[in-house]
Amino acid sequence: MTEDRSLTTSTSSPSFSEQLPNQMLTTEQHRQKMQRRKQVQDQRVAARSQQKGLIIVHTGNGKGKTTAALGMVLRCLGHGYRVAIIQFLKGAWQPAEKAVLGQWPDQLVFQAMGEGFTWVTQDRDRDRANVEAAWQQALTYIQNSEYQLVLLDEINIALKHGYLELDAVLEGLASKPPDTHVILTGRGAPPGLIEQADLVTEMTLIKHPFQEQGVKAQPGIEF
């Protein structure tokens, strides 16, 4: 009996043109390939209908944790949302950043609480008190439904060094209104925070001009 090989071919297998590198496709093949990919992506987007406030963590040793968070801040301001920023690390914010963010006084609240804390601790009890005060102030924004985004800048470092209790922070995050987004930045995010977060991004350091070339911090890049 002769086998009918036409019946063994799966209709879901990628077409020949799908398996070719882009540079080997004709213009028409490329157009069709991109159209199929767009259809798949459109179907995925259409299937995602849920909307909620997110807990977002930016961590890792690479540059860009606060910078990425500021991009979200600007988007929210562009939508007319209210935003609160709490600075936990002394000296983390530069005059240029404050000058730009100061253009939205009716939408944006920025607070650098007390002295913050420093890498070289002079008085641990005082540092803990300052960080705790910052957290209590942050809670008032996190629990206020008028604020669509709250940025807790460098709070992960405070958690890493024991200036804040993780359980207290997780409990505070759980008390936020359903539509409020909270961003927590800083290296060393603890596993418990990562587990509770909806979106976690780890910035990985691959090359840095300060370390490898001796290039100093420059305006517009570092400050």
Give a quick summary of the entry:
The protein is 40% helix and 16% strand. The protein has 223 residues and is an alpha/beta fold. It has two domains: 1-49, no CATH class; 55-212, Rossmann fold (3-Layer(aba) Sandwich), CATH 3.40.50.
Give the CATH architecture of the largest domain: 3-Layer(aba) Sandwich
As a percent range, the share of strand residues is 15-25%
CATH class category name of the largest domain: Alpha Beta
The neighbouring-strand order within the major sheet is: 3-2-4-5-1-6
Mean pLDDT: 84
CATH homologous superfamily classification of the largest domain: P-loop containing nucleotide triphosphate hydrolases
Count the beta strands.
6
Which shape, going by the Cα principal axes?
globular
